[in-house]
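Could you help me review a protein record that somebody else here produced? What it holds is a sequence and that sequence's fold in token form. I have pasted the whole thing underneath without changing anything:
=====
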Amino acid sequence: MSRNIRCGLIQASNALSNSRSLPAIKKAMIDKHLKLIEQAAKKKVQILCLQELFYGPYFCAEQDIRWYDLTERVPDGPTTRLMQKVAAKHKMVIVVPVYEEQMPGLYFNTAAVIDADGKYLGKYRKHHIPHVHPGFWEKFYFTPGDLGYPVFETKYARVGVYICYDRHFPEGARVLGLNGAEIVFNPSATVAGLSEYLWELEQPAHAAANGYFVGAINRVGREKPWNIGEFYGKSYFCDPRGKIFAQASRDKDEVLVADLDLDMIQEVRKVWQFYRDRRPETYGALTTQTGQKPAAE
């Protein structure tokens, strides 16, 4: 019997002017997403992922301590607690990207994973933090993740998370596969003209190299006053062969829904034996900064 799982991705534009108060901005975005989550529930989605930093704009387009006040604790903060109730109501696994405060002055770009009964399963913290012109000043806001590459055993599937800039690094994508991920979600915020040509290249390559499904999410619209570019949406699902089989629009709020046959993972891995044929004993250079083999003592 096939293991068919219905999954969803939400891409959305910013709901309120950035000149408004942070509580107002946050409430508007959460309210907007609650309506989109209801749409996903009506379509019988079982696993749903929201976009990066979903309850606000992509504030990393500037360096301003004002945005530190968007942080909250995980899992004890209000957004995680709210989404636990929503997940239980709809019997839906939800991946919830938030701006996490570990303690005052120590902040992470984080995704909480909530099971279909509302149980908090754990969190992933973004490892790779960009500081890229123009307008991706993330080192001002985030500490590099320190929790490894966990895979979460949800009611429906084994789920891993990568966040935005992480997708440029194949090492963590491989670790997620080795840790048993069947679906890897990548909530993102990326604009046209910077790395759009990589959007449909890198993540399908990760899916093919590791034999799992990928759900890639990007927000939509332009965000004033920064106008660093157009968030071009195009959220998608690709299969373990690296083929994109469902994709959202470029410029609209949307709930993308697709059915994933998890049995395909086994079918693909019976042909492409990448895990069997790995040579980890030869990869020592990957753990050094320059790639040079350490000199013998």
Q: What stands out?
A: The chain has one domain: 4-278.
